[in-house]
Amino acid sequence: MTSLTGYRIAALAALSLALCAQQPKTPAEEIAADFHYVNKNVLDMAKDFPADKYDFRLRPEMRSFGAVIVHIASGNVYAAKAGRGEKVKWDELDAKNYKTKEAVVALLEKSIADADATLKALPADSFHKTVQPWLDVLEHSGEHYGLLVAYYRANGMVPPASRKH
After folding, report:
1. Range of the domain at 66
2. 148: CATH
3. Crossing angle between the packed helical segments 65-83 and 101-121, to the nearest 10 degrees
């Protein structure tokens, strides 16, 4: 009888774990996961792209690679401030203030850390009311991630996320 009870407890524990694993993520978890995913990919690119190509532009009228990274960081700064409830408008960071790859990468890392801290500080139920500004910034960053892929391909390079590991 004891071993049968042990098997039942083990089976119930396994079933409980399986059911927990199937629970859908909350809106807060989904936003945080997506935010982390896109920013990790952009940060990997910012670190990987050669410093001597940071001024590369697909066309003369377009932003340089480095300026696109600064532009993405601007979105993260906006999200962090808006997420904290600050009255904010989109203030474009000036790429001319970030002259080196190291400065651009540091800016992006800081913008990600600040936005992550804001995301973690928000009560989970706040995302049941609105997913803004996070959804807009995620879409914005995703669009520019695709643009950065084009910068890679135009330089005969494979983006980090597309490489076979």
Report:
1. 26-162
2. 1.20.120.450
3. 20
How many whole angstroms separate alpha carbon 55 and alpha carbon 155?
A: 12
Q: What is the pTM of this model?
A: 0.84
DSSP letter assigned to residue 97: G
What percentage of the chain exceeds 70 in pLDDT? Answer: 86
Rounded CA separation 65/53 (Å): 8
Residue whose token pair is 């009870």: 5
**Which tens digit of pLDDT belongs to each residue from 100-152?**
999 999 999 999 999 999 999 998 888 888 888 999 999 999 999 999 999 99
Give the total number of structural domains in the chain.
1
Does residue 108 lie in a domain region? yes
Contact 30, 130 (CB under 8 A): no
